[in-house]
Amino acid sequence: MPAYQVTTSTQIITAPGRSGMVWIPTGAFQMGECAFYPEEHPRREVAVAGFWIDRHPVTNEQFGRFVAATGYVTQAEQPDIRGGMVFHAPAHVTTTRQDDTWWRWTPGADWRHPRGTETANLALAQHPVVQVTLADALAYGAWAGGELPGEAEWEYAA
After folding, report:
1. Which residues in the chain come in under a pLDDT of 50?
2. CA–CA separation, 48 and 156 (whole Å)
3. Is 21 among the domain residues?
4. CA separation (Å) from 129 to 6, 90, 140?
């Protein structure tokens, strides 16, 4: 079975009492990338139990409601960090193996200011929240009454 194929149903079922969620039925897929990510060897078939997942990513507006309700401070906003990695595409690409030069530490980059202190995401309320860490996402999920999918679940749903 090619890596892009999965064995599953295509029927979409929405969660009762929880709008925006869909059911991903039990199935299997080929997990692992051989060509570009050696740390993901070997490619193997993985079975995934059915699970619920949000149809759309968490937006800035949704994450903002969480922060307003709880007073949560993201890791990028912590006094000893105050910043994050921001993507800067090169003018021309010579090789994809130098992708570490495409990301730069940017003081002040956080979920409110995704490209640094001089930017704000006020016009991006319905865009996916960025500049959040795993810990930030876990805190949001716990507050929202959900949880993050595991790596296999995420790849299978995608």
Report:
1. 1-8
2. 8
3. yes
4. 28, 24, 11
